[in-house]
């Protein structure tokens, strides 16, 4: 929903935008054009800060105008949770807009070494956005017991057959042939998960989603970031988040509802048009929610009479 993002963000007349999930840079390129041209002396220079956890994304040389060559774009390697540090590095305390496009990019899906795609069975089951962080998914499976694995697949994948799958994963480990590749896990899921009625969901979809969420702490990062975002988004500023499954969407919805510093601008989540889904089938489950940071109410300390 790139044009919806541009619409909602531009309404805030932003000078500083954080694109927390840079990916292929599509949003950053569009958001850059929303910025004013001027470098008014007493205001911070117009800037999009692009962040991504994946070093291969940030080090690519096809970023807008080449790395370091566009004065309106700064890229940071790291989780969007560190947005306040990226802002401080650029000599600013607040952003006027914060954009999140959660999940993984098409480039990551196509990468033969990451294990994100079921169509590459020989790939190691890694599933990390940042290959330097924590454990790849196959090691996470090796270090956890059947119950923990089943609980994670159920909680983060909403997979009804989580116990069967976890049992098979642990059986393989006992037989000294632990799950190591995408193909190993897909084969287990095929045996444990009956085909869906319309055959529209691959039997491994939910399990892979669960493991990706676990190894990247995706929901924890989202929850913590949204809980503190009103501290560093300027009054009148916007937050726009695109989520791809119900667990993410629930976190976004509740974060906006539970903090009265946000005014919700999209009463219902926005969905991609039929045309966008035709062009990009992966967008079919996307939901966009937008909120505005309300102006601070100055009332002194609670219970204290006004001076
Ligand atoms: C769907 S893609 C974003 C696509 C991007 N909006 C574009 O227009 O090309 C999601 C990106 O978010 C990144 N990502 C996931 N979790 C992240 C996090 N906690 N912090 C920063 N980037 C993250 C992934 O590495 C991936 O590159």
From TrEMBL:
Question: One GO MF term, please?
Answer: rRNA (cytosine-N4-)-methyltransferase activity
Residue ranges for the region (Disordered) are 272-307
Protein name (Swiss-Prot/TrEMBL): Ribosomal RNA small subunit methyltransferase H
Biased composition range(s): Basic and acidic residues: 272-282
BP term (GO), one: rRNA base methylation
Q: What's the catalysed reaction?
A: cytidine(1402) in 16S rRNA + S-adenosyl-L-methionine = N(4)-methylcytidine(1402) in 16S rRNA + S-adenosyl-L-homocysteine + H(+)
Q: What family does this belong to? A: Belongs to the methyltransferase superfamily. RsmH family.
Question: What role does it play?
Answer: Specifically methylates the N4 position of cytidine in position 1402 (C1402) of 16S rRNA.
Subcellular location(s) of the protein = Cytoplasm
UniProt EC number: 2.1.1.199
Q: Which NCBIfam families match?
A: 16S rRNA (cytosine(1402)-N(4))-methyltransferase RsmH (TIGR00006)
Q: Which InterPro entries match?
A: RsmH, SAM-dep_MeTrfase_MraW_recog, SAM-dependent_MTases_sf
The scientific name of the source species is Rhodopirellula sallentina SM41
Please list the residues that bind S-adenosyl-L-methionine: 25-27, 52, 80, 101, 108
Main site of residence?
A: cytoplasm
EC top class, in one word?
transferase
Q: Which UniProt keywords apply?
A: Cytoplasm, Methyltransferase, rRNA processing, S-adenosyl-L-methionine, Transferase
Q: What would be the name of the gene that encodes this protein?
A: rsmH
Per UniProt, what is one Pfam family of this protein?
Answer: Methyltransf_5
Sorted alphabetically, the Gene Ontology cellular component annotations on this record are: cytoplasm
By its UniProt entry, which PANTHER family does this protein fall under?
12S RRNA N4-METHYLCYTIDINE METHYLTRANSFERASE, S-ADENOSYL-METHYLTRANSFERASE MRAW
Concerning SUPFAM superfamilies, the annotation shows: Putative methyltransferase TM0872, insert domain, S-adenosyl-L-methionine-dependent methyltransferases
Q: What is the lineage of its organism?
A: Bacteria, Pseudomonadati, Planctomycetota, Planctomycetia, Pirellulales
